[in-house]
Amino acid sequence: MRIYDNVEEARRTILRRPDVEEVEIPPALAASLERLFGRPISPAEAVQRIIRDVRERGDAALMEWTRRIDGVELAALEVPREAWLAARDVLEPDLRQALELAAERIAGFHQRQHVDSWTAFDAGGMLGQIVRPLQRVGVYVPAGTAPLPSSLLMAAVPARAAGVEEIVVVSPPHRRTGEIAPVILAAAAIAGVERVFRAGGAQAIAALAYGTESIPRVDKIVGPGNLFVALAKRMVFGQVGIDGIYGPTETLVIADESAPPAVVAADLLAQAEHDVLASAVLLTPSERLARAVQEEVRRQAARLSRQDTIAGSLSNRSGIVLVRDLEQAVELANEYAPEHLCLLVAEPWEYVWRVRHAGGIFVGEHSFEVLGDYVAGPSHVMPTGGTARFASPLNVMDFVKVTSLVALGRAELDALGPAAARIAAAEGLTAHAHAVYVRRPPASPSPEES
Bridge partners of 125? Predict the structure, then answer.
């Protein structure tokens, strides 16, 4: 894991992220796309073609792309409810208890989030807002290198807390069995979703966005996924709501001399094992800590199972940056706007309120990111790629919509109508002004009527 002693170099390299469409495509992926489409083709163009085909041909296209991309011949898209209830019932008891604990804590956290309807009287009328949950939501659950039941819980449970009427889950079938991993099915049962489908990639996003004979069209699609899922979500936005465009996962640790090197290294490695494109970055003013963490990373990584993935991440978008002091570390963190920001410093609360941009802040040694990934309570579906500057973790507000309520009386018309008509006239919208005058004739002829 490289140590950067030049902050500007770090800004140009590991603290700079490419756009999702600027990601360099590995040669193997480029070759795979060429075999699949018969000519060199970009991921964006491939996704566009898949979406168009699923929109036009429905289930037939969805099953064909699943066969061509995943090598899975599907007999049916939907997984019967009995199958996922059975998967829950035969799950190892300790794993089932852990998932149920996670679901309970996620629900408890999100039930505290309130966005309420309200009305207020205004002379002879009323203004207000009506808050309603979305009717149908699609949850995408990745299962590429490993099944992720936690991602299902982190998306479906907040939706349930918001009162969503129908939650539809899609997840890629396993290449060998053609089935969704039993642990994901068990999580679906624990979360209390309505339907589960065997479908992944861009074709699954297209099915949720436009509907097929089997998969119902949803109002919003949520959940992380790979490059093709991210591109597909971007392309269908507007036809359907989305929670965000998620890039590779990332963590930024700010640590000082008080931080145990073994703990810092463990937190960085936990992030690095997600993906070769994952970012695990340490900012510290202590060269001694930097050297010790570098050695701990080397030592601990040698004992872990996903060594190739970890090595790819650590050599690609990860590193240790020596900063002048903790104030500069917070400044860099705000520029970077990380998905996860971990404060492993002697006085973390001194810096919490200085953080402007982060998906989640993990305060102190005992509030580490792994607890947030699974059981702390907030959703681990968080903004990546610097979008924490304007976006939030998945939460109850993602699953409701606000309808404005306007119920004014004659007194408000008399008080407000002239101003509305005057603004309409200034904009050249005479029909707007007329809609006022037909209810409340002007004291003197309007410019349009004279």
Answer: 122
| H or E element that contains 426 | helix 410-426
Chain position carrying tokens 């073609």: 49
Domain residue ranges in the chain: 3-19+248-390, 78-244+397-401, 410-450
| CATH number, span 3-19+248-390 | 3.40.50.1980
- Tokens (6 digits) for 401: 């919509």
Measured from the Cβ of residue 449, the count of other Cβ atoms closer than 10 Å reads: 12
Helix-helix angle 261-272:287-301, to 10 degrees: 50
170 DSSP β-pair partners: 140, 197
Of the candidates 158, 157, 155, 148, the one whose C-alpha atom is nearest the C-alpha of residue 100 is 157
State pLDDT tens for residues 397-450. Answer: 999 999 999 999 888 899 999 999 999 999 999 999 999 999 988 875 555 544
Query: Edge-to-edge, what's the strand order for the sheet holding 125-133?
Result: 118-122, 125-133, 400-407
CB crowding 325-341: b at 16 or more within 10 Å, else e:
ebeebbbbbbebbbbbb
Residues 42, 48, 52, CA angle at the centre, nearest 5°? 150
Tokens (6 digits) for 11: 């800004």
Instruction: Say which of 250, 273, 296, 339 is annotated catalytic.
Output: 339
Instruction: Provide the angle, in degrees to the nearest 10, between the axes of the packed helices 307-316 and 287-301.
Output: 150
Whether 380 is a known active-site residue: answer no
CB atoms within 10 A of CB 350: 12
Residue type, 89: D
Determine whether 357 is an active site residue: no
Encoding tokens for residue 114? Answer: 């309130």
Q: Are 272 and 309 in contact (CB under 8 A)?
A: yes
Q: How many residues does the chain have?
A: 450
Give the alpha-carbon dihedral of 198, 162, 358, 354, to 10 degrees: -170
User: What is the DSSP pairing of strand 136-140 with strand 166-171?
Assistant: parallel
Residues in the chain with pLDDT values less than 70: 19-23, 444-450
Q: Which parts of 24-72 are beta strand (E)? A: none
Q: From the CA atom positions of the chain, what is the Rg in Å?
A: 26
Give me the pLDDT at residue 450, please.
Answer: 45
Domains 3-19+248-390 and 78-244+397-401 share a fold: yes
Helices and strands per DSSP (H, E), number in the chain: 18, 15
Annotated catalytic residue, options 340, 357, 369, 380: 340
Superfamily designation of domain 78-244+397-401: Nitrogenase molybdenum iron protein domain (3.40.50.1980)
pLDDT digits (tens, 9 = 90+) for 267-281: 999 999 988 889 999
The pairing of strands 250-255 and 241-242 is: unpaired
